[in-house]
Amino acid sequence: MSVSRRDFARLAAAGAVSAPFGGKALADIGDKTPITATVTGATPTGYPRTLIEGLNAIVREAYPGSAISFKPNSPGGGVLAVSKGEADFTATATGAEIKLGNEGRFPFKEPLAGKFQFVMQLYDNAYLHLLMTKAWADANGVRSWDDIAKKKPRMRLTLNRPDNPQGSIGGPYEILKAHGFTIDDIPKWGGSFVLGNSAVSIDAIKDGKADVMMGGGVLGNAVVKDVASKRELLWVDGDLATMQKAASVFHYRADMVPKGTYAFMEKDYPTIRMAIVMLAGAHVSEETVYKYTKAIAEAEPRVKAIGGVMKDGFAVAKMPTNDAKLPVHPGASRYYKEKGLIK
User: Fold this and answer.
1) What pLDDT shows up at residue 163?
2) What is the pLDDT of residues 320-333, one digit of tens each?
């Protein structure tokens, strides 16, 4: 059957003509065809959900008619969901979720290598807050992690659950190990630990149910300031080299929290700084990932306006930053190469 040039153009616009040589047709630069995707990785409430909903809204506006939905989960659960095809993107992964997922180590039950790929770095300014109450520190003569390791005080520690590796197995567990003990030693000292999300940890410190807290967040966190106004806090001290030893296990880095970040900080203190990245399942089409990436990159002011960590942590130039060296999804790679962000 012969097809006229006019008919070919009409059929191509309708998607009825395949690309030459059996290749998949890709959206051109002006294509506004809607996409469908599910984004996961965050709990039903809290800032991470606000972040994801904000990103999704930007994509829906860029491609009118798109069905971009949010599916609650944890950071570890999000990696599992995209690997199993139960969601398309997860927006809260760090080097911990990536490494543990690839290798099939707890909390993952089997290796997921090849089932998820890198899309973009969202921000790199998530800092572990290493806090203790002044009353407990004074009572036990403790100011640093070395003091804790040496004195083995009765301690009530609060931190995140293992299904959120970045807030437990990742930074916090490695900090303890770098100082010569583990979370399992704490009960042996007569202490205990509570596993929960950041809200649970903050409440435990505020309500006098915990002595030490290890949890992530943006510096200058209003919630931490509020707790400090009700209960005297201190930052658990350490040294940068030991902190870097802990950080490097999961592709994090050690950094200093400046004096005065909180009123109770009389000097700079070392901690672990994490980058949060978006991943996509290997099953997700190149077009979907390309369009999601493009929409976010071309709306930098709106992305920053989501607030929180995104205000200072997001930058288009940093989007391709891939500290864990994970394979980049073809859709994201295509956009970054078009814009000269990667070779």
Assistant:
1) 84
2) 999 999 999 999 99
Give the DSSP letter string of 38-101.
EEE-S-SSSHHHHHHHHHHHHHHHHSTT-EEEEE---HHHHHHHHHTTS-SEEEEE-HHHHHHH
**CATH code (residue 175):** 3.40.190.10
C-beta of residue 40 within 8 angstroms of C-beta of residue 70: yes
Task: Tell whether 10 is covered by a domain.
Answer: no
Domain membership of residue 7 (yes or no) is no
Provide, for the chain, the percentages of residues in helix, strand and coil under a 3-state DSSP scheme, each rounded to the nearest 5: 40, 20, 40
Domain count across the chain: 2
Q: What pLDDT, on a 0 to 100 scale, did the predictor assign at position 19?
A: 32
Alpha helices, DSSP H, located in the chain = 5-13, 47-62, 75-83, 95-103, 134-140, 145-151, 171-178, 185-188, 198-206, 222-230, 240-248, 286-297, 300-304, 309-313, 330-338
User: How much is the pTM?
Assistant: 0.87
| Average pLDDT over the chain, rounded to an integer | 90
**Cα distance between residue 169 and residue 174, in whole Å:** 7
Domain extent for 302: 26-123+276-338
